[in-house]
Amino acid sequence: MIRLFLPLALIAALPFSVQAQERHPEPASPPAGKGMVVREADTMVRQPPPHNGTGMSTAYRISDGVPNRAMEFRKRVLHPGASIGLHVIAHDEVYHVLSGEGDVTSDGVTTRVRAGDTAYLYDGNNVGIRQVGEQDLVLIIAYPLAERAK
Questions:
Q1: Are 143 and 94 in contact (CB under 8 A)?
Q2: pTM of the model
Q3: Fold of 31-144
């Protein structure tokens, strides 16, 4: 019976600060602000896709109103025939497909993507994406900013 309680006694004897650090690690840097909730519906705008893209899209510029942010987080719906034009990126970028199908191009290589697929694109790649099929292509797009937005 003593053997069973010994490990528990050792854990309980650890300094409180060691136990707390294991449960709540320190952040990598001080918080840049209070957390906030953004309502997707409040960020919707119909616009042509960026980077000389074709067709029409609905953009949800989710992070645009977040003060002192270090990244962009957006949802974009590419309607039939729409595309985000080829452009060289100056950061890593992620396209996550929520629904529909598309052809993502990175440095001349084109790959079909569908719901559940994620394209991880690297700093310096020449990238773009085109909606294919009859359904809208719905994407989540995220990338870091060069510096915090004010």
A1: yes
A2: 0.79
A3: Jelly Rolls (2.60.120)
